Fold this sequence. Notes:
By secondary structure, this protein is an alpha/beta fold. It is built from 7 helices and 11 strands. Helix 2 links the parallel strand 2 (36-40) and strand 3. The two termini are 19 Å apart.
Amino acid sequence: MSHNIFISDLHLAPERPGTAESFFGFVKGPATQAEALYILGDLFEYWIGDDDLSDPFNASVANALGGLTREGVAVNLMQGNRDVLMGDEFAARCGGRLIADPVLLDLYGTRTLVMHGDTLCTDDVEYMKWRTKARDPAFQARFLAQPVPERKRLILGMRQKSEEHKQGQPPAIMDVAKLTVEQVLRDFDYPRLIHGHTHRPARHVHRVDEHDCERWVLNDWYERGGYLRCDASGCATRAL
């Protein structure tokens, strides 16, 4: 049966060879059977700019996705908070396309909203401030003007601060805000919602204005890879 596959939060990095191995196996295996693959952000642990495609690890990921597109699978890439600088050059190398966050799909007759998911975490005020800064074109231009080694040094420092911030926050703060989720569902006329970011994989049903809206949270790949498979009959999770 024709189907689409959704993944997010792989956080690929040379320092995590097991996850990379799972990804390459997934691209050569289950992903080849899909009509389309949607990567909803944080494909990489960090991304310092498309001019780092000469890095062997980055090139190997792009080439693997390029092989998938040559198999006839449409590859759709969304920026996450870790790879916000992923751009058109990387997408072209993959043979895929960048998509907006959020974007509304007609998924086998079911209206489905897909997003990375960080915009739903509005209770984490400090993170939302950082997100605005990280997506500011002037801030990005200043960052990209730095040499590659300096950018890598800066990114590693940002990652360390991010981990320190997480350690000091109650877990609920870093999850989605219920009222924000409900407002998004309302704004998009009560669709199904698929997102990542929170690393809290689950299926939820939100009752909004007498509409039952399904929300799927994708799993991260830190512990074990997996994906969401959607076809005309609905969605279901699959482990690797």
